[in-house]
């Protein structure tokens, strides 16, 4: 068995939370690991049999999926839509978005945590060193890479802010999109992706502890290590002028996404009455 839907991103936009919610639905199967990255990293040499084995327990489930955010890392990872279509055909896609400036800040902290960039850089310096930090928030550009292989009707765009403010409404919309029965699940209490801590050098290798000890036990051990020895990775602070500048850099992308989705995301994220963070 293979997936009939994918959560393809965006990075640092709530995909872990959404995958966790869907995994608790009786009609849904979400694979472990959450992000197999089969279509983004084919050079790893893992074949289709390996990928299919991740879903061998999905028998009887109406919606079978995975959630690899690397599927929307264009242009840094290319040809993903074609590989997906060749293997899975005309599936459904779920794409999580959030205020792109807030997403960028979260991705910055993620990059420091994984040592893609050194700590202490400004946001401009970080993007210069690692352009993917900015490009993963080019939502319209990322979705447009799939135009040749997927109709817009096969896509569901979900704003993280909506999921956090009105989870029941979003879940009902998702159930309708995936053609499964309504089943509402409370939001997880924490999202580790936005709560990152730098560990001392001797403990750096334990960032991948979940791969060695999967599930709740691994998560508990990691949390305890953070409490004992961790130092929170701080996000760069933006003054109002800097924040407006970053919004302007994303504005054309947000307008294109708005036109495609039929919703004014610029007003939703940056209009009067919105809240920062």
UniProtKB/TrEMBL annotation:
A GO molecular function held by the record: sulfotransferase activity
Q: What transmembrane ranges does the database entry give?
A: none
Q: Which UniProt keywords apply?
A: Glycoprotein, Transferase
InterPro entries per the UniProt record, alphabetical: NST/OST, P-loop_NTPase, Sulfotransferase_dom
Q: Where is the Sulfotransferase domain?
A: 3-180
Q: Where is the signal peptide?
A: none
Q: This chain belongs to which protein, by name? A: Sulfotransferase domain protein
